[in-house]
């Protein structure tokens, strides 16, 4: 099973790019972020015509998350992150697909900091940690996929010294990510490519993509039953260079049907 996360940065404006990528790569499951469309403006028919069922939570102008599944409609299990009944931002959705629980999330950016947006980011991280603690212990494989708006380490950011005052690289945010890992979650991309410089986002400004001045902020975290099935992980970097593409590239993993055999030392 190939599971991808993709911050599409406007599902209607980037629809040709999304459909081209779906046709070329045929992922089994896709978590989308930043739909930037109200609930009734999600391009359901175009997604259906591409061979995918979908569930989504839209929001006018901002945010918005969706889960697509090839050849079927995901079985929704949760809409919205628990812990704050007054939170109206569309940032979390969860579904069961072929025995795997997939959560699609769009963690707040948090800039500028300090301020209310950064406070909201930190509070959202706490809610995610609380909910993830339950998911981590499930016997079934679970994948937490999305745009985390966090660079976990210096390796995940071009020229880290320039990001010291940014909410995406704040010590509090990175500590929150580390606490998720301490629950038993595995950072799939880093697990298979521990020392490589790999980015998932390149700004539109200052020719960032051409200079490879990027960030790794899109992550797929796996609970133990998912981690033992992890086979490959990567980034469809070329998509970022397509015309009118998002500033993110699709990031993906493949899970085998059985636990992967580990070589004996």
Tell me, briefly, the overall form.
Answer: globular
Tell me the structural class.
alpha+beta
What is the third-level CATH name, the topology? Deoxyribonuclease I, Chain A
Number of helices: 7
Strand order of the largest sheet: 3-4-2-1-14-13
The helix/strand series, from N terminus to C terminus, equals EHEHEEEEEHEHEHEHEEHEE
Which range does the strand content fall in?
25-35%
Count structural domains.
Answer: 1
Overall strand count: 14
What level of helicity do the residues show? 10-25%
Determine and state the CATH class.
Alpha Beta
Specify the biggest β-sheet: 6 strands, mixed
Radius of gyration over C-alpha positions, nearest whole angstrom: 17 Å
CATH architecture call: 4-Layer Sandwich
* Span between termini: 28 Å
Runs with pLDDT <50, length 5+?
Answer: none
Average residue pLDDT: 97
Structure keywords:
265 residues; six-stranded mixed β-sheet; 7 helices
Report on this model:
The protein has about 260 residues and is α+β, with helices and mostly antiparallel strands. The protein has helices at about 15-25, 45-50, 115-135, 170-180, 190, 210, 225, and strands spanning about 1-5, 30-35, 50-55, 65-70, 75-80, 90-95, 100-105, 140-145, 185, 200, 215, 220, 230-235, 250-255. The protein has a single domain (about 1-255), classed as Deoxyribonuclease I, Chain A (4-Layer Sandwich). The chain is about 25% helix and about 25% strand. A six-stranded mixed beta sheet has the order 3-4-2-1-14-13. Strands 5-6-7-8-12-9 form a six-stranded mixed beta sheet. Helix 1 links the parallel strand 1 and strand 2. The longest helix has 21 residues, at about 115-135. It starts with a strand and ends in a 10-residue tail after the last strand. The model has no long low-confidence stretch (mean pLDDT about 95).
């Amino acid at each position: 099973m190939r599971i991808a996360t993709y911050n599409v940065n406007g599902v209607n404006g980037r629809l040709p790019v999304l459909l081209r990528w779906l046709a070329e790569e045929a992922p089994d499951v896709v978590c989308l972020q930043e739909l930037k469309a109200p609930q009734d403006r999600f391009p359901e028919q175009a997604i259906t015509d591409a061979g995918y069922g979908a569930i989504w939570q839209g929001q006018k102008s901002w945010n918005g998350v969706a889960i697509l599944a090839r050849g079927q409609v995901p079985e929704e299990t949760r809409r919205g992150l628990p812990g704050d009944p007054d939170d109206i931002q569309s940032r979390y959705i969860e579904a069961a697909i072929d025995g795997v629980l997939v959560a699609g999330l769009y963690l707040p950016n948090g800039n500028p900091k300090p301020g209310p947006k950064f406070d909201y980011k930190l509070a959202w991280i706490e809610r995610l940690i609380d909910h993830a603690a339950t998911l981590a212990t499930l016997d079934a494989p679970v994948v937490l996929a999305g745009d985390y708006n966090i660079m976990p380490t210096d390796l995940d950011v071009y020229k880290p010294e320039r990001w010291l005052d940014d909410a995406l690289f704040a010590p509090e945010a990175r500590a929150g990510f580390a606490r998720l890992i301490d629950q038993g979650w595995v950072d799939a991309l880093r697990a298979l490519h521990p020392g490589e410089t790999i980015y998932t986002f390149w700004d539109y400004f200052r020719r960032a993509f051409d200079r490879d001045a990027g960030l790794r902020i899109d992550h797929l975290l796996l609970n133990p039953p998912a981690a033992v099935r992890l086979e490959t992980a990567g980034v469809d970097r070329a998509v970022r260079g397509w015309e009118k593409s998002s500033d993110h590239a699709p990031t993906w993993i493949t899970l085998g049907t059985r636990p992967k055999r580990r070589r004996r030392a």
